[in-house]
Design brief:
With about 325 residues, the protein is an alpha/beta fold. The protein is built from eleven helices and ten strands. It has a six-stranded mixed β-sheet, sandwiched between helices. A four-stranded antiparallel β-sheet has the order 2-1-4-5.
């Protein structure tokens, strides 16, 4: 059963020359620790913001525990807990007040939240500080209270965006152990990280995103069985995808520069953006009824064929 299903996700920021997410497809299965990988600017953060409902997306479908996060955001959001990379917490609350506030939002009963809170504080060794204001916490302690807030309603999907940045070795170990324990209970863990060694050891599967598309969907059990190196594979795949992306961007910029000679820089820039907007619309129309595929060759070939700006411009 898929706990998270992302189908034909497109995100194009208004006025932008390039598409942040371009026909992204993947699933996170029940009981799975799922790695979400990519270089800076690959489209990871945009995808996570679309999944969590922080920003709207241009087109596509995202389901969390069967709930469409666009049509039924209330029920979809009840099914996940999110730990962002900037531990977004309320500094003037105590740790206990913050977690109780989150528990209130999710409707967690008093006796249930008390038991869970005590259990999670013991897991992450933060019980001594829960009655202090969060502003007095270290970076690592803020990350821990953010994790506890995300788990107080025990969601089926636990989403973590770079959760181990700034944590000491003991805290990293605690988080990793609880990720494994949480998945064993039949829940799913969505783990976005730049630490490829940790992903290779921890995750069941991982996808690599580059230039707004999925360029690989990897079975990490197979990698561990055969001794294959995720880091080497990641570097090679992103190198190939990066070369293609740079080629596409150069073509767009070259055409804009050529047009600017005829109609001026401002009009040329507007014409390029207008063309990109049309391209997004055309891509959406082509893919909305297509089966979801995540193969490197098909995605890259599709991107190469559609991203190039080839239409004739006018000075109107």
């Amino acid at each position: 059963m898929a706990i998270l299903k992302v189908q034909h996700l497109f995100k194009h920021y208004n006025g932008a020359k390039y598409i942040s997410a371009r026909d992204i497809n993947f699933e996170v299965k029940e009981g799975e620790i799922f790695g979400f990988l990519g270089v800076n600017g690959a489209g990871k953060s945009t995808s996570i913001k679309c999944i969590t409902g922080i920003i709207p997306f241009t087109s596509g479908k995202i389901e969390i525990c069967g709930f469409d996060n666009k049509k039924d955001p209330y029920n979809a959001k009840k099914c996940f807990g999110f730990v962002p990379d900037n531990h977004a917490v309320y500094d003037k609350l105590t740790g206990s007040e913050y977690v109780n506030y989150i528990a209130d939002l999710y409707g967690v009963e008093e006796n249930v939240r008390k038991e869970r809170f005590e259990m999670l504080c013991a897991k992450f060794k933060i019980g001594h500080a829960v009655n202090n204001q969060i502003m007095s916490y270290s970076h690592g302690m803020k990350q821990k209270i953010s994790i506890i807030g995300a788990l107080i309603h025990m969601p089926k999907l636990w989403i973590l965006d770079e959760p181990m940045v700034g944590l000491d070795p003991q805290s990293i170990f605690e988080v990793k152990e609880y990720m494994k324990e949480y998945a064993k209970k039949g829940n799913s863990v969505f783990f976005s990280s730049h630490n490829l060694d940790t992903v290779q050891v921890m995750c069941d599967r991982a996808v690599i995103v580059h230039g707004g598309i999925v360029i690989a969907d990897i079975d990490l059990h197979e990698y561990r069985r055969t001794g294959k190196d995720l880091e080497k594979e990641f570097m090679e795949l992103t190198r190939q995808a990066g070369e293609l992306q740079n080629q596409m961007r150069k073509e767009i910029n070259d055409e804009e520069a050529e047009l600017a000679k005829k109609v001026g820089k401002h009009r040329a820039s507007r014409a390029t953006v207008k063309k990109i907007d049309k391209m997004v619309h055309d891509l959406i129309e082509k893919t909305k009824d297509a089966p979801c595929v995540n193969t490197f060759a098909i995605d890259l070939a599709k991107s190469k064929g559609t991203v190039q700006v080839k239409a004739e411009y006018t000075s109107k």
